Amino acid sequence: MNTAVTALLLLALVAANLPFFSERIAFAIAPKSGHKAFAWRVLELVVLYFAVGFVARLLEQKTGAPQQQHWEFYAVTASMFIVLAFPGFVYRFLWRR
After folding, report:
1. Looking at the 3D structure of the chain, how many domains does it have?
2. What is the pTM of this model?
3. Which one-letter DSSP state was computed for residue 92?
4. Which domain holds residue 51?
């Protein structure tokens, strides 16, 4: 596997789990209620999905001509990003402390 692909997969794994390991909104603002709502976590997950996609697009342009992508590609990558977020979800909501 190429080094860029490995780095991109590790970046996606970290980015997908960040919203669940941080109690700050947008990783900077502490919520007034003391805990971050689930909607904020989903919004951060969507923003990070697009950020990782942007980095992937830059890497693709650097290695060659970018390929045209259709809706199926984005549906699969969004599903994979959600699967990568599963460890963080388990840690935040299902793990008994």
Report:
1. 1
2. 0.89
3. I
4. 3-94
Type of residue found at 19: P
DSSP per-residue string spanning 10-38: HHHHHHHHHHHH--SBTTTB--TTSS--H
Distance (Å) of CA 80 to CA 7, 12, 35, 61, 83:
16, 10, 27, 22, 5
Sort residue 66 into left (φ over 0), alpha (ψ -120 to 50) or beta. Answer: beta
Q: What does the alpha-carbon distance between residue 83 and residue 88 come to, in Å, rounded to a whole number? A: 10
Share of the chain residues as helix, strand and coil, in percent rounded to the nearest 5: 70, 0, 30
Which region among 5-9, 26-30, 40-44, 82-86 has the lowest average model confidence (pLDDT)? 26-30
